Amino acid sequence: REGLFQKVDMSRIASKDTLSPSVLNNWVYTEGYGITFPESVMTLAYNKDLINFTPTSWGDLLNDEAAGKLGLYNSFYMSLYTFAAMKVAQEGKSGTAAAEMDQNLAGVVEFAKQNRDRVKYWWPTSTDMALNLTQKNCAIGNMHSPDMLIAMRQSPELAAVVPNEDRAFVQLMWVIPEGTKQKELAEEAINYLMGEEMQTAFAQTGSMTSSLPVAQKVAGQDAFWKQIYPSTEAQLEKINYYPYDAYFKDWDNIVATWDKEILRKSA
Q1: 0.85 cut: is pTM over it?
Q2: Which portions of the chain are predicted below pLDDT 50?
Q3: N or C: more exposed end of the chain, with fewer CB within 10 A?
Q4: Can you point out the beta strands (E) in 60-208?
């Protein structure tokens, strides 16, 4: 919208027709700027040896058994949403975390302040979180799905679940920068990247795909992948991204509060 990207000739992106409409339900696509797609999903990861219950909800991070044992990502775009999911679960409103972020951001931030002492480890990378789970430095928390799939294959004591309520995916997009001289070649590349061959390759290395035929195929081949990612038409219709619009409304204040009062306990 600010002149940074060219509009894409969507008639040249035939592969888009295999994608779930839910992943394209945004202005980037509807105004012709590019193809959006989900990648990593917020995943509830845990060490089976360190907790005496099987997590099924983000509200389980409030279980007394998990107090002081949480590992959460140190970036707010993911973990503030995790706190929102915990908050609405505690209030009996699971499935409304995105609305809570949009309508009661201050309440979510306050909830995060009140519950930050439950967190033992603020992880900077997925590798660090997987290592700390394996070494029993933390018991349960949030995680990026592609890296958790790798961790579960390597360490059988690790497990994960993606609760049906309040699922949130990272949003990525293929766009064409303004000034690109070979626009048609770029469009061909986008079409290829969203096509069956490349989507299968992405999924087989642990990423999400919003192509129903590919999702069904990979889910039939990989039980771990099926456990984490949507693979039916009904599941794909319910894809939601992190609440980026809510963040953009008050970005500077969120960053300041997150860094000074949540990652580091205020005096």
Answers
A1: yes
A2: 267
A3: C
A4: 70-73, 119-123, 140-144, 158-161, 169-177
Whether the CB-CB separation of 140 and 68 falls below 8 Å is answered with: no
Check residue 164 and report its DSSP letter. S
Q: Whose structure tokens read 């992190």? A: 242
Residue 143 has which token pair?
């995680």
Read off the pLDDT of residues 144-182 as tens digits, 9 standing for 90 and up: 999 999 999 999 999 999 999 999 999 999 999 999 999
CB 63 within 8 A of CB 110: no
* Residue 66, domain CATH: 3.40.190.10
**55 shares its domain with 102:** yes
Which domain, by its residues, includes 232?
Answer: 5-37+171-236
The three-class DSSP label of residue 189 is helix
Greatest Cα pair distance, the chain, in angstroms, is: 59
Question: What's the number of domains the chain is made of?
Answer: 2
- For residue 64, is it within any domain? yes
